[in-house]
Amino acid sequence: MMPAEIVLNTHAVAVLLLTALALFLFTRDWLPLESSSLFVLAALATGFQLFPYTSDGKTIHAVDFFSGFGHEALIAVTALMIIGHALARTGALEPVGRALTRLWEVSPKLSFLLTLIVGAALSAFVNNVPIVILLLPILISVSLRTKTSASRILMPMGFATLIGGMGTTIGTSTNLLVVSVAVSMGMNPFSMFEFVMPVLLSSMLAIMYLWLVAPKMLPDRVSALGDASPRIFSAALHINQDGISDGKTVEEVIEKTDQLLAVKYVKRAGSDALTLPSRQLTLRSGDQLLVSDSPENLKSYEKLLDADLYSSDTKIDEDHPLQAEGQQLAEIIIAQGSPLLNTSVAKTRFADRYQLVVLALHRAGPQSPQAVADIDNAQLQLGDVLLVQGASETIAELKQQGKILVLDATSHIPHTEKAPLALMIMVAVVAISALGILPIAISAVCGVLLLALTNCLGWKDMAEAVNAQIILIVAASLALGFAMLETGAADAMAAGFVYLTADLSVTMQLSGLMLLMAIMTNIVSNNAAAVIGTPIAIGIANQLGMPPEPFVLAVLFGANMSYATPMAYKTNLLVMTVGGYTFNDFLKVGIPLTLIMWLSLSFLIPVFYPVG
């Protein structure tokens, strides 16, 4: 029998059903996160406009659900995103990278530990995406020089930055959201370093695990940088008119490659349809063979078959030669803030803009045949890798610009004369907020203004740094949290949680809430889990007659434990692609790490925030 305190009105039931649907949609690959977030906003606004809700004389207006776009947490997240992009763009962290590179040559084991600590420490103040982008080429370069597997160190490094981000109120967007929502509900604000001690103590255990244990649990996978043979790329071989492959059967073409060529699909001339190849199929001029192989083999097939590597229907011609003097292959990873993210090679006019030819596309997980057949028009996703070819000077210049992450087995880091200034602005933003002079939302906006006035970052660069997906998921999550709070749905869920855990101690209830958030954040968006969980946490505290701070921290810490799946956090996707990891690799290493952080923080939160 449920307790009498759990009373749900029609609007609360509708909000809970919409929340369940939203969490389901957030996990669907076939629906962009931006679309599902906008659906949530539209559904809330339309529903409350058509069916107004009034309680205690107060009416919720439909336009109130759009207030998330002006919420101080979203403003702070966006501004800090831009500042973090400026640090990466100007190379402000270059001295850190150079120092770590030198240390790796002295003692790899101790240097790996220091890399984990430095990555965690920097991520407490800067979004971890530029930190991961800083460390990726360094660790790849070190692994190539020492002939060791990068796959044993990349995932631990990525996880270390996630752990470090838990330590301050500005370490992650999740922290900012939880703190802001809690304050808007009447809780006293946390100072910037309010909960650094429990995170620091639990991080010591986690870092030791990532340093000593995790590398032994990960498989040896040779990086695709320098030696690209383990990395399989997909590309289209175009049959040329009157070439040696024109008029030959698929079987004859395969014979010319000593049976090495594996044809997955055939795209016939004048048709967009993809067909499974018959070995007796006669090839005609204009046909395309969709194949997957190493970069070296793809280039070899091009010569053997007198065929051209194609990306979409544009032939690689004399303006973009593949065999010119000084040409080299390079791999470009689609990272957060990249001008290629969520667009296509064709739309960005990549060949004309960068003077590089796109040869192939690598995407972690099952690849879409249609995307492979039309590389130019395939929408590029976070973690995708493009195989490109061009003049070595062009590739070096592209890397030096810092706009695109080039993984070419070197440890050069973008650097401009604005780097010290960008770093000083970031330090000032953090210091002003830490000292309580200005809230982080205001100091960060002032920092962005200074970046613009000092030309550290142009407005176009700032636009590229702002992630529409994050903006929409944050706004939608804030709207859901607002609806749950105002309709009483959050209080009802809190009462249900207290009822189900009534036989447990308060410490166990706190621990259970954190574990629930940790599970949710690995399945749906961590920001959604945080914003939905915060009003429930405060409701639980009110039901138990306890201070809200420890329960809010349980939500904050749990929502940051994005270790068990590659899609749980964007940097997981980056290291997954570069390290060649599988979904099971994340489960194998991430679940024990989650247990370490959950158990240690379950013990430490009541120590620093007594719950009776």
TrEMBL record:
Transmembrane intervals: 7-27, 33-53, 73-92, 112-139, 159-183, 195-214, 421-454, 466-485, 497-520, 526-544, 551-569, 589-609
SUPFAM superfamilies in UniProt: TrkA C-terminal domain-like (SSF116726)
Coiled-coil regions listed in the entry: none
Superkingdom of origin: Bacteria
UniProt subcellular location: Membrane
Keywords (A to Z) from UniProt: Membrane, Repeat, Transmembrane, Transmembrane helix, Transport
Primary localisation category: membrane
Domain RCK C-terminal, residue spans: 220-307, 317-404
Topological relation to the membrane, as annotated: Multi-pass membrane protein
InterPro entries (alphabetical): Cit_transptr-like_dom (IPR004680), DASS-Related_Transporters (IPR051679), RCK_C (IPR006037), RCK_C_sf (IPR036721)
Protein name, entry field: SLC13 family permease
Lineage: Bacteria, Pseudomonadati, Pseudomonadota, Gammaproteobacteria, Oceanospirillales
